[in-house]
Specification:
12 helices, binds adenosine-5'-triphosphate, binds magnesium ion
Length: 287
């Protein structure tokens, strides 16, 4: 394998974590979606959550974003406890935490520009000119300046997802949550979204990313957390999870995804047609 080694330790551990999830439990009726889960996100880190379907990854993001009340434990965001049942607390949290979903959830009746500008205009009360200037700058950043006047339906899935990322960034969040942002996309547009996310990470954005893109987790993640049946079964730097794990369940999950300790991007790089389908090329991803 060529290129720099994946990360071996956390960044920013000296200061207080931006997000501290402390032994949370979340139940839906008799089903325990999360049990005694703890997780720390430091400023500037990219933390990737992986694990089988139904293991609680989305639930964890929803709890962090004050969309779910807890049945035990607590969550601290920027040092303050998150109270999902208190509208004021929930609003404050969501203003500082951007969330990007699998299915974009753009407003279909608004142009791309308005989709991005509407948060700053209505929530942050920027005047329309300022909100639209901010929106245009963000559309440029995600490579969609030429789509400002289009409606979402006229865009590819990858383009819509980049608009959704710009929309979340327009609120100038301190933390970005991504829930499988590429899993609803056609394969040919996955790379453009991952590239935008990689660029954000390089700028120092703090990110929690639920993903099935193991190359992304290995190369961009600073820390990887493995979920199974509502619990964290292992966490560590990518090198530990993807190369030296001794946890049988982690191995099983990775091999189920076709991961055998070697990046598929390394293979893709040697096959031009595959590499072309995956614009997040190896050089770009290495850091
Ligand atoms: N609103 C809900 N009501 C009832 N059960 C729920 C609800 N949301 C999630 N669950 C259940 O909680 C468990 C964890 O779900 P969650 O969506 O967090 O898993 P996940 O790891 O994100 O899975 P996937 O990879 O399929 O997205 C699952 O058993 C799911 O069916
Ligand atoms: Mg999910």
């Amino acid at each position: 394998m060529t290129g720099p080694e994946p990360k071996q330790r956390r960044v920013g551990g000296a200061s207080a974590p931006i997000l501290a999830i402390e032994r949370i439990t979340k139940r839906y009726g008799t089903l325990t979606a999360l049990e005694d889960v703890s997780l720390t996100v430091n400023r500037g880190e990219v933390v990737c959550l992986i694990g089988p379907s139904g293991s609680g990854k989305s639930t964890l993001l929803r709890c962090a974003n004050a969309l779910e009340t807890l049945d035990g434990g607590r969550i601290l965001f920027e040092g303050r406890e998150v109270h999902a049942s208190d509208p004021k607390s929930a609003r404050a949290v969501r203003q500082r935490m951007g969330m990007v979903f699998q299915n974009f959830e753009l407003f279909p009746h608004l142009t791309v520009l308005r989709n991005v500008a509407i948060g700053p205009a209505t929530v942050l009360r920027l005047d329309r000119g300022a909100a639209e200037r901010r929106a245009r700058a963000l559309l440029a950043k995600v490579g969609l300046s030429d789509k400002a006047a289009a409606h979402p339906a006229a865009l590819s899935g990858g383009q819509q997802q980049r608009v959704a990322i710009a929309r979340a960034l327009a609120m100038e969040p301190a933390l970005m949550l991504f829930d499988e942002p590429t899993s609803a996309l056609d394969p040919e547009t996955v790379g453009e979204v991952l590239s935008v996310m990689k660029a954000l990470a390089d700028e120092g954005m703090t990110m929690v990313v639920v993903t099935h893109e193991m190359d992304f987790a290995r190369r961009v993640g600073d820390w990887v957390v493995v979920f199974d049946k509502g619990r964290v079964i292992e966490e560590g730097p990518p090198k530990q999870i993807f190369e030296t794990t001794t946890v049988a369940r982690t191995r099983e999950f990775l091999s189920h995804l076709g991961w055998h300790g070697e990046s598929t991007l390394d293979t893709a790089a040697s096959s031009s047609s595959e590499a072309a389908q995956h614009p997040i090329d190896k050089e770009e991803v290495d850091r």
